[in-house]
Specification:
The structure is a single chain. With about 90 residues, the protein is mainly α. About 50% of the residues lie in helices and about 10% in strands. The longest helix is centred in the first third of the chain and has 29 residues. About 0% of the residues are buried. The mean pLDDT is about 90.
Length: about 90
Amino acid sequence: MSDAARDVKLKVADAVDGLADELERLSHRIHATPELAFKEQQAVAWLTEFLAKHGAHVERGVGGLPTAFRATIPGRGPGPATPAATT
């Protein structure tokens, strides 16, 4: 694994660790409120709220499904990010 990839992995792990308590509460909340397939209105609301609160651009109703969503986290520059090439 390259140093750049290792750095990214550590940053992601730190970010998830920082959100661990909130993610656990969210998972318990969803688990405590079961919903039928394709009717997960409450779970979608909680998930998209969480993502938007943490800076993601959220698109709801993706593909014509009211419970489908896409969340995009802005990068630091134009285009996709790729790890530095290693030799």
